[in-house]
Amino acid sequence: MAIFRSERYAAMLLLAAAVLGLVLANSAVGPALLAFKGEHVELPLLGLDISTGHFVSDGLLAIFFFIVAVELKRELAIGELNSLSKAALPAVAALGGVAVPAGIYLLITAGSGWENGWPVPTATDIAFALGLLAIFGKGIPTRVRVFLMALAVLDDLVAILIIAFFFTSSVELSYLGFAAVTLLLFSGVSRLLRPRSGYILTRKPQWPLVIAMWVLAVLTWYFVFQSGVHATIAGVLLGLVMARRPGGRAVHSLEPYSNGIILPLFAFSAALVAIPAVSLSELSPAFWGILVALPLGKLLGITLAGWLGGLVAGKRSGVGLRIGDLLVVASLGGVGFTVSLLMNELAFASDHDVVDEGTIAVLLGSGIAMVCSAAFVSWRAAQYRSGKLSVSAADEPDPATAPLF
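RESULT FIELD:
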């Protein structure tokens, strides 16, 4: 499983899974796969009724969001977002990368009744973006990757907030209360796992504590699921309350399974869509809104917001980039994929035909962004390798006075 720690291989596997899902859905075995995806598992004693597809998107994907939350907490504590000056410019760029795609989508879908799909083109797939940078970006300096990582983490935070606030219709407060109790217990037990001088747990096996944490994590997921809040938020909450050092070890252990099994399985499941037998004119405005807003909106939003933010902050932020580097980051930001597919399922849950069209739009829009980003990244990497641009961050000029490229 160690190979799946590689951003490069994780991105290739994710793409292969999505392509396979789309191909099989439109083959002879497509109807059987779609029927299996819709099969429900019922546990009457627990009041649980969940389809196979939702088991992946609501259940397994919570582990991915747990990893995202732990990494976000680390970046805020000791990483690239641990001060206002470091976080300001990536935050401005991330907000531009959310506002502009949402605005473009709303312009295209105005009056159609599908305006509620505006969150779909606002997401960035951190695994894909970093994977593409690793594949095509040999020679690009570390500061570009750091900026992309910071922007993608903040983008994920916005996605989490959107899911929590815009895709929760009714809430059962009693279940949320139970979830709060299990979260507190989970947090407390995680702090017992940290080695402490003279503490008895450092000299005894800690498997009972680990098992207890798994039980508490599953209970938290169950209570959040039953509360009416989207169940992936349980993964976010668990990641945020877990002690930092044990959290880092947990991410190290879970990351290969997330990259190698969970994310490809979700991509495969989400891409199980029969291509609609309709003309281009019959496709919904939601399809066109996502297709245009995802690659173009991200490119414009991140580039313009990052450049304007750099003009204001200058070198004070310590992470300013030229427009050429911002184009690299912005083009990579247009690969929505995993989180966009999840947003699509949530936004158009009332109409399966629009869900299918939205899925195809996300795949096509992300595909366009992949081609553009491969071109931008390769071009920029060639400039750095040729010596035309300085790789040293110390030599990077003030964005307010530097040449644009």
